[in-house]
Amino acid sequence: MAYLVAVLIVVVVLLLSIGLHEVGHMVPAKRFGVRVSHYMIGFGPTLWSRTRGETEYGLKAIPLGGYVRLVGMYPPDAAVGNPPARTWLGRLAKDARQASAEEILPGQDDRAFYHLSTPKKLVVMLGGPVMNLVIAFVLMAVVLLGFGLPTYTPHLAGVSQCVLPADAPATRTCTSSDVAAPAAAAGLEPGDTVVSFAGTEVTSWDQLSGLIRGTGEEAVPVVVERDGELVDLTITPIVAERPVYDANDEPVLDAAGDAVTEPVGFLGITPSQEMVRQSPLSVPAAVADTTWQTITVVATLPSRVVDLVQSQVNDTPRDETSIIGVVGIGRFAGEIATTDGIGWQLKAASLLQMLAALNIALFVFNLIPLPPLDGGHVVAALWEGARRQVARVRGLPRPGPFDSAKLVPLAYSVFILLGAVGLLLIYADIVNPVQI
Question: What CA–CA distances, in Å, run from 30 to 27, 54, 73, 331, 429?
Fold first, then answer.
């Protein structure tokens, strides 16, 4: 049941994200006087629709996107000089211009989208992706400020009884020949909270860990809170060889492939992990970091698609960094909800983080400068505005609207390509899912 509920939550939030994305286009378009004839969630046959005012609102059978139809997206033939249609590409563009012109009601040509100024076109086209970015901010704020992040704290989850070698297996237990761990020898117990170490007030596990690693073998005072009371202890750390970790918390290896170690102070304590609420400043930082990671993925999308095809052809497991589709997202949500050993707060935070990342992906992906994506319309508007600015500087007559219908063949090609990649992702996520 938890698995199904999590999948349902992802579906609902995804549909809401799509719906609000289209609202981001529709509201400024209507504000600028453009007639919006349709507002639809999904593609394919219409399941339900209602007309309110001059706009038909509805749901379609395939919930993998949505659209708003802005009347007059393409300028009519007369506005772009009646270009001849000598090739099939020209005929395709001409058909698009004519179909767009037919949507313009008599006497309402001034309400066509192509009449908007460049800044207004940019506001309309960027309204959708920006809405996804706003959703990501809200979801990330709920996670970081409401639930918090799993963070190691000075509250002790365990106290080692002996000092094990750095290369000892995880299942190794203490023997009579092992040296007693300093923490156990000093009387520290699981459940204690370290309040101060060597006279320094302790505020975080990272701080305490740094203080411990920097000590030698001299005795230092430690204050812990136990059962609501402060207990003064004296502990004598030992210097032990411990692995060196890089910025990604991965062990550093030498040329032979062995873990690099260094002598550090050691007590033999294990921190507990708790959900700690973050500061408001962490929200934009987290969104910026996720956005940059998404940009790097989108920038390498062609190679990732090739890797995906090769994994399917060769029947090899997919890498953890492989791109996933809606089926994979739903499966991750279900696995998060049914994972044992973690609290519901961490499950909810993980699910919301994933949904925030999904909205950031929608934000970044829609800004790809190719039609029919929003980024393609942004580039067309910028090109139109640049032509007009150059003409103004040179004292030339103001040029007419850019014939964006010429991009229709490219838009069809991109749409077909994206559809094929989407189907491939659905297939791969079912028969060869990413294992994490």
Answer: 5, 11, 14, 38, 39
The tens digit of pLDDT for each residue in 98-134 reads: 999 999 999 999 999 999 999 999 999 999 999 999 9
pTM of the full structure: 0.84
Residues marked as catalytic: 22
**Model confidence pLDDT, tens digit, residues 371-401:** 999 999 999 999 999 999 999 999 999 998 9
